[in-house]
Amino acid sequence: MTRTGGIAELTPLNRAREQRAWYWYDWANSAYVTTTAAVLFAPYLTSVAERSACGKPTDDGFTCSVDLSILGVQVSAGSLVFYLVTLSTIISALVLPVVGAIADRSARKTTLMAGFAWAGSLLAMSMFLVAGSDWQLGALLLVGATLCLGASLVVYDAILCEIAEPDERDRVSSRGWAMGYLGGGLLLAANFGLLTVMDDHTELAVRICLLSAGIWWAAFTIIPFRGVRNRPPANVVPEQGGLLKQSFGQLWTTLGDLQHYPVTLTFLVAYLFYNDGIQTVIYAASIFGEKQLGFEKATVLSAFLVVQFVGIGGALLFGRIAQRRGTRGTILVGLVIWVGVVVAAYFAPDGNFPLFLLLAAAIGLVLGGTQALSRSFYSQLIPRGREAEYFSLYQAAERGTSWVGTLVFGLVHQWTDSYRPALLALVVLFLLGLVLLARVDTRRGIEEAGNAVPAVV
After folding, report:
1. pLDDT tens column, 12-22
2. What is the CA radius of gyration of the chain?
3. What is the CATH number of domain 10-54+70-448?
4. Which residues cross the membrane (predicted)?
5. What was the pLDDT predicted at 72?
6. Which has the closest alpha carbon to 360: 283, 280, 285, 278?
7. Where are the alpha helices (DSSP H) in 396-426?
């Protein structure tokens, strides 16, 4: 079996079989991303933190402050989750590039991906234990699960370059995202039913939902683990020493060589900005719906169901448009829609559920499309043999490991005691990403990276 251009020379039938197995990791981890990270855990941990900040009842009644004291620093309980995501990103900036460098040198990428997934799913299942005012345990589990998710996705995204030809990647990436929305949506629907049935025991129901997401993540990771074969590394940069020392050496070499790929660097910076906005919206949406607009937890969850199932069609639709009109232009259209959604959410009146559902549908339409196409577009711009390490830089802003948006959101909320101006501040991130992406010369970037140019760019 030979390799050309960093991609296994498989027959179309074998390649399609591996691609179908690869899709299932989107299905597996999306249950955690949707049920836990996006919908339930942020507002639940916020409530646990607020309960801790309120202290104990006194003779004068129940005295409550909304601040936590962390190492002597006063932190708003409502901003805690956003600061935790910021912390996760700072750690990710140090850890994920090394994970990527190790993966590029490993002959067991699929095994490595599954190992990180199962570690993250164990932490996700442990969130069931977060109760009362024990926000510290919840904070540790959230940071740990986020790091494991990011590490698994570094390897998962790099595998895309091995199982799909350049002309296939928009389609394969979009189908993976669509599978993720379907899987995440099905579990979310089941959890919606559980919350409805157990409306008198909401906290226990939420904890059971968190447990179910971890179990789902672990169980369905078995399919890609068994269905996507490990491959030997290709085009590895020679470095001295053991695997870890070689990985650090490759990391520094890649960071130094990044200046020779200016188009790739421009896209990466653009993605860091606009995906930062996307991830912050995902994290903030449930809190915004509950704490700002005044909806019940089950009501917000129903809106996320709309996002999930509209997202299936949105990911597939954007993938088809990209195959005909080009990937970069399709992403640009999606970013314009994102700006409109954020501005409309800022003006949304409290308690207006039909408008909240409409905004959820608009998010579903562009969410999967922009993210799936960004993944496949970036895969065309990275040099062969360094896929995992370059995707580790990409993952620094992916699925909740971004930090500028969450930090801004947390700070603006702490300063204004309102989520509305915090949400509006995110428009700047989308606009910066849009302007930078418009400057990307797709054909030049693909050629600079030494990759084959797809039929439509």
Report:
1. 888 899 999 99
2. 21
3. 1.20.1250.20
4. 21-42, 80-103, 110-131, 137-156, 177-198, 204-225, 265-288, 300-319, 331-349, 355-378, 390-412, 418-438
5. 62
6. 285
7. 404-416, 419-424
Q: Contact at 8 Å (CB) between 431 and 339?
A: yes
Residue 291 per-residue DSSP state: I
Q: What are the backbone dihedrals phi and psi of residue 233, each rounded to the nearest 5 degrees, phi first? A: -65, 155
- CA torsion 236-110-382-431 (nearest 10°) is -150
In angstroms, what CA-CA distances link 232 with 156, 197, 247? 15, 50, 16
Q: Record the tokens describing residue 152, joined without a space.
A: 């698994």
The domain segmentation of the chain, as residue ranges, is 10-54+70-448
Answer yes or no: are the C-beta atoms of 88 and 401 closer than 8 Å.
yes
Neighbouring C-beta atoms of residue 233, cutoff 10 Å? 15
Say how far residue 54 (Cα) sits from the centre of its chain: 32
Q: Which distant-in-sequence residues (6+ apart) come within 8 Å of 318 by Cβ?
A: 174, 330, 334, 366, 368, 369, 370, 372, 373
**Is residue 209 classed exposed, middle or buried when 0-12, 13-18 and 19+ CB atoms within 10 A define those classes?**
buried
pLDDT digits (tens, 9 = 90+) for 102-136: 888 788 999 999 999 999 999 999 999 998 888 88
Residue 256 CB-half CA count within 13 A? 7
CA pair distance 274, 328, nearest whole angstrom: 13
Token representation of residue 235: 């085009």
Say which amino acid occupies 300: V
Nearest to 311 by CA among 369, 263, 265: 369
Q: Is 441 exposed, middle or buried (0-12, 13-18, 19+ CB in 10 A)?
A: middle
The residue among 304, 124, 140, 278 whose CA lies nearest residue 215 is: 124
Quickly count: other Cβ atoms within 10 Å of residue 289's Cβ: 27
Whether the Cβ atoms of residue 7 and residue 234 lie closer than 8 Å to each other: no
Determine phi and psi for 73, rounding to 5 degrees. -100, 130
> Residue 159 and residue 22: Cα distance in Å, rounded?
8
pLDDT at residue 335 in the model? 95
